[in-house]
Amino acid sequence: MTARSFYEGARDCAPFMIIVIPFSMLFGVVAREAGLDILQTVSMAVLVIAGASQFTALALLQDNAPVVVALIGGLAVNLRMAMYSAALVPYLGHARLSTRALMAYLMVDQSFAVAVRAYEERPQMTAPQRVAYYFGCMAAICPLWYGCTFLGAVIGEALPEALSLDFAVPVCFIALLAPLLRSGPHIVAAFVSAVTALAFAWLPWKLGLVIAAPAAMVAGAQCELWLARRRAA
């Protein structure tokens, strides 16, 4: 049964391959244009394995921001992974520490979105099946992220300007975000993040993102607490 769950996870996450391929290739291209060599580009993809924070850190470095600012910016964007982890604890918290560590490393937006939705819709899944499903989701995304980043770094400079891959970034996050806006706190967090990022867009080194990420988390959490208090009243 676990093998079947692994296959189902890979199958359910497979549509995101259409986005991950150009998205990761785009990072390879942009990283090379920013001055990173192939080894540095691929190493960043393997060590960070988080597209949004990689692009953020790279953009900050291109703007000649201090390294510490680039690290803080990437960390702020990646704070969403803490929320993802908390959301998965009820389903995967039983796993061994080594397994959970590997899950944390492999976690990406696409696989989280697919996995948590499957867990909510199929409460009959056993603990081993949930773990297998999660790794199936990762198997559909992570190898492509590594391989296509390398491909983009190698052939990126040879791509004609007419063959732009920029569309992959907004399309990917629209596809991820829209299905997850299922409650008031989700909508409040998304709204606050967008408004805050725009309000502080004038700050240097894209520091508006550093402010927007925690502001959105606080707003979503407060909204959820308020709703919980109303239900308890």
From TrEMBL:
One of its GO terms (cellular component) is plasma membrane. GO terms for biological process: L-valine transmembrane transport. The chain crosses the membrane at residues 12-32, 38-61, 68-89, 101-119, 131-156, 162-180, 187-205, 211-228. It is found in: Cell membrane. Keywords: Cell membrane, Membrane, Transmembrane, Transmembrane helix, Transport. Signal peptide: none annotated. It is a multi-pass membrane protein. Its main location: membrane. InterPro entries: Brnchd-chn_aa_trnsp_permease. Coiled coil: none annotated. The keyword Membrane applies. Belongs to the AzlC family. This is Predicted branched-chain amino acid permease (Azaleucine resistance).
